[in-house]
Design a protein that fits this description.
alpha/beta, six-stranded mixed beta sheet, five-stranded antiparallel beta sheet, 20 strands
Amino acid sequence: MKRFIVLFLIATILSGFLSSCFLLDFLNGGYDEATKIVVNDVLPQQLALTPNATYICSRLESSVASGTIIAPDKVKAFGSSANSIIVRDWIVAKEKSYFFLLDLNPGAFYAHPVKYILVSKSGSTTVMTAEWLPKINGKVPNELLQLIPKPNLVIQSNITLHQPSGIHLSYDFPQLTIRETEGVIVVQGLKSNENLFSYAQDAYLDVIHFFQAYKSARPYGAVEINGLVQSDATKVLNAIDAMANKHNIVTIYIIAHGNVNYVKLGGYGFTSYQFKSKMAAHPNTRFNFLLGSCHSGSFIDDLSSLPNVRLVLTAAKSNESAWPDWDKYGSTNDYNPADVGTEWTSSIFERAKSILESSTKWSAVRSYASSHKIPTTSALLYQAHWGALGLNSTYGFYGNLDLCSRVNKENPQVYRSW
């Protein structure tokens, strides 16, 4: 009888153990039950707020412990000890919990809309709206840094991301006779541990290689190039001073994460007003400014008010994301799948390459610059901008090379002073 009672008690305890969340915690971190809550309850509510959004909802590999702090990846204003110029919200896990990221613009540079979803072991949920990847106890988890999340971590999505492939363009221009001397500053603002770093680095290298060939094809000393990457990107304002003190034409290209009226360089936020003030301090220098960040179009308002800014090109409108290289989106294929970096950057410089390799097109650019009394480089980049979008029939450019623009994910913007 005693043996029977003991066996009965063991069976009862084991049965309760097998049906409890504790077993789920033990076997797979508890994500099975938490995923059901997110899919059945949270996502229908959140996606109803943005019914036309493309999205991917993914989870972390492991649960988070009680006391874990989840906060947006903060951006400090350069030269300031202030915490964040973006957002000061955070979530604290009150018990063992399970974290999900609802990305509402998957594959884009930041900042763009995301939602943090935290499901506690007891089943309660917390949803936080943000624009940056989350730091969990001070670090962005590696699985959230990937362009394409691991399939086993995706719990629901309505888009398939494709890994692009391509090679850097090769530049070898014929001799270009231009009397103007100028400075070029090429900036890659992402650190190696940030999302889409390799794509930003490829874009940076494409632009560096282009201007190195541009320099080699011109008379000795006509072009000076300064490349700034990762932490060195914070030196951009000093670099502008240095170039403007030696040259009366300066072209600045920046690829980085960003938001409305600022860009994140080397982990710090630089505002459009800082760039405006720096350019205004050199009234005798003419500037071209190219920005490949999200919401980059917002810079046009500030910079276009300066009489010495000749050209501003941006990857997107002030309310849009910017994107890396794509070869395919849905059923739409890229016209130049061999490009790398970002769709916007590679498209412009591929068209600029075509202009410089054609004596007829190059002569047309020089004539255009002369008639409008603008720097030749300003004219070249302006014509390449419209050529990249397939809207420059004068130069024989008809196809839109920017796949992200073709599917209305980004709409590159332009300001010209003439």
